[in-house]
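Pilot study result, target chain (91 residues):
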Amino acid sequence: MVLAKVCGTVTCTIKNPHYRGRRIMVVQPIDASGDPKGRSMLALDGVQAGVGDTVVIFDEGGSARLILDCDDCVTVRTVIGAIVDSVDRGE
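Predicted structure:
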């Protein structure tokens, strides 16, 4: 699981049948302070996240397929699984 910020959406005129009806989002991994960490990536939206939302992404195919409830989505690796309300760093 990784914290990330949704930066944008991707529009595709042609896509794999497993992606139809699902939004592809650009996400930027962040640290607990909200600072960028690493490279941005694409993730399928599993929770109706929007641009600007802080989210939890799962960057592992098995977990992604479980969240999407799609056993035959073998091409899916990264999915947005939660929208974060707050982060308590315990300081």
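One observation from the pilot: The mean pLDDT is 87. A full batch analysis is planned for the follow-on phase.
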